[in-house]
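INFO worker-7 received task bundle
INFO bundle size: 2
INFO processing item 0
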Amino acid sequence: MKIKELRELSDAELNAKLAQLKQELFNLRFNNATRQLNNPMQINVCKKDIARVKTILRERELKA
């Protein structure tokens, strides 16, 4: 997910996206623990997406 795409979303959409990404990370970790995950790098990608969303939310909080 590109940072430019995330910056176009509203705060409510970003919070929804954050919840969705956290749920996805939980599922990826669960699948990894049960050896059903084909690509373990998906976990890192998901964690970086979460960090991007949190960064944008924090930037907006400081700007206000």
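INFO item 0 finished
INFO processing item 1
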Amino acid sequence: MTETVLDGMLDLLLGGACVGCGRPGRLLCRACAAELPVQAAPAWPTPVPDGLVEPWAASAYAGTPRSMILGLKERRLLSLAAPLSRLLAIAVADELPRGSLVVLVPVPSRPRVVRERGHDPTRSVTARAARSLRREGLDVRVGALLALDRRVADQSGLDAAHRAANLAGSMRVRAGPMRRLLQSSPAVRAVVCDDVLTTGSTAREAQRALEAGGLEVVRVAVVAATPRRSAVQDLGLLAKGT
């Protein structure tokens, strides 16, 4: 059975359409999937938060990757977690030195938001990325090591300075999981994982909390970064449809 016929049947049965091009059928058609990035690159925000480790992104937050992220987070299109995890895995592993255990630490979501959505997209995408990286021979695991320590205001509409002030001190390490991790693997390195990098304030706060708990943070890895500087485009990170 051809892809066209199969996708037509899926559209009739499920009412689905590709989030990239709108073609009826699969949530991500083969053509759009084939155009997703296969390499990551550093994606520094502007301005750069003081002390932020190098952030890597697989794509710009635009086009098909943006639609995939929103589809998973806001529309609960759960099958998009798999292709998003492949993009996150690229951002984690591209040019990352090997040799010791790497723990992928998803940025925590507010419990109320997780309850409303019925799932935690960042955590599920990070877990899938870890599984795929282990299959490629990377010594990696997922550690839900962070928790929100206080309420923060809605970030939408805030500039970089106000986002940083809003998030300062908002995260803490979960003492039990952190202690067990460090006891079992003293040389462990951490990668902070998230779906989107905007100002870098969230990633920097996650990094601060992990370092305060005694963990070395070597990278921030995200699926996509907002195209806040021309270098993002120069590096070929602009997604299809922009």
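INFO item 1 finished
INFO post-check item 1: The longest strand covers residues 216-225.
INFO post-check item 1: The radius of gyration is 18 Å.
INFO worker-7 idle
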